[in-house]
Amino acid sequence: MTLQKITGMLEYERVLIESSDPARDIYNQNRFGALLESGDLQLSLLEALYLLEKKKIDVVERKKKLTLEQFVRKAKKVEPNFYVRYCVFRDIRNRGYIIKTALKFGADFRVYDRGVKPGEDHAKWIVYPVYETEHLTWYEFSAKNRVAHSTKKRLLIGIVDDEGDVTYYEIRWMRP
Questions:
Q1: Which of 51, 78, 99, 158 pairs as cysteine with 88 (C-beta 3.0–4.6 A)?
Q2: Are residues 59 and 86 both part of a single domain?
């Protein structure tokens, strides 16, 4: 079944799609967004940009259809580090994984192993996107590792270069 192109409304830091079969398909088939009690689908700006790039949705603001460039400009104003975060989000999605926010874990994202949907099992990794020239102190690095360890997840650092390519490093606690 192919996804039918639908329209979402930009609402500051999210995109809302009215309740419909195609909206439920986007959620059920690929776990994009969150279904609200009303049946509407709420997408993060990252999810919306991904679907916009894939030409699965259109995004409107005040009845005006936004171009990809207009949407990105608006998202960058709302979300810090949007470009770096989106590069990691897009790369992981393109590799066939489901990626969701991980704010409650103190991380940017949580990633589910291939074939696993949120609610069926726990995420395997938490991911921190970092721009290649950014510096982490040992304290920051240790804090990220502790969050992963305490939530029983593996830590991935996604390093984004100038071309938007991502290199991942998995970090784990070890006992000698």
A1: 158
A2: no
Domain co-membership, 60 together with 128: no
- What's at 139, amino acid-wise? Y
Scanning 8-160, the segments in alpha helix (DSSP H) are 21-30, 45-53, 68-78, 82-94, 138-150
The residue annotated as part of the active site, out of 56, 100, 144, 153, is 153
Q: What letter would DSSP give residue 28?
A: H
* Residue 153: active-site member: yes
- The one catalytic residue among 97, 112, 128, 144: 112
Q: Give the whole-angstrom CA distance, residue 88 versus residue 166.
A: 6
Closest CA to 124 of 95, 148, 150: 148
Tens digit of each residue's pLDDT (9 = 90 or more) over 74-104:
999 998 899 999 999 999 999 999 999 988 8
pTM: 0.91
Structural domain of residue 15, as residue ranges?
6-78
124 within some domain: yes
Q: Is residue 104 flagged as an active site residue?
A: no
Q: What pLDDT, on the 0 to 100 scale, is given for residue 111?
A: 96
Q: Residue 44 belongs to a domain with what CATH number?
A: 3.40.1170.20
